[in-house]
Specification:
Number of strands: 0
Helix content: 55-70%
Strand content: under 5%
Number of domains: 1
Radius of gyration: 19 Å
Order of helices and strands: HHHHHH
Structural class: mainly alpha
Length: about 150
């Protein structure tokens, strides 16, 4: 049942991304081009998503527990660290250059545009590179320092 819900949520998200035009990199890049062909529609899509999320959280968190999990898994950290800021900056720069974010690229794979496949491949390579880097960093920090 959990996999069915996951699939349906992903399907709804993908259809929404596609219908809103956010799977089109030109539309996204035009949003960032405030001095040129600026297209504010991405702000309306984000605003709509925030509104739905705000209302959805208010409704869902009144429940005793989630439908498919024993407890809610809500982050408790509120600090800003270098990983969060660096990752956010890297995400934003990549989004502005390529016109794709991971959420928009996956539904766009259905267009068979080679640029989407290049972006998705780079995304996967980046995920594995980041995991390897985090693992190496953790191993270095765990090693005892020589006296």
């Amino acid at each position: 049942m959990r996999h069915l819900f996951t699939y349906l949520i992903g399907l709804i998200f993908g259809v929404g991304i596609s219908l809103s035009g956010m799977a089109n990199p030109a539309k996204v890049i035009n949003f960032f081009d405030v001095a040129g062909t600026w297209d504010p529609s991405l702000a309306f899509v984000m605003g709509g998503a925030l509104l739905v999320t705000f209302i959805g959280y208010r409704i869902v968190l009144k429940r005793e527990r989630p439908v498919c999990e024993p407890t809610f898994d809500i982050p408790t950290r509120r600090d800003l660290d270098a990983r969060l800021i660096g990752g956010s900056a890297l995400f934003g720069v990549g989004w502005g250059i390529a016109g794709f974010c991971p959420g928009g690229a996956l539904p766009a794979l259905g267009t068979l545009d080679p640029n989407v496949f290049v972006f998705t491949l780079a995304l996967v390579v980046g995920i594995f590179a980041a995991r390897s880097l985090m693992r190496l960093t953790a191993q270095r920090q765990a090693k005892p320092k020589p006296i």
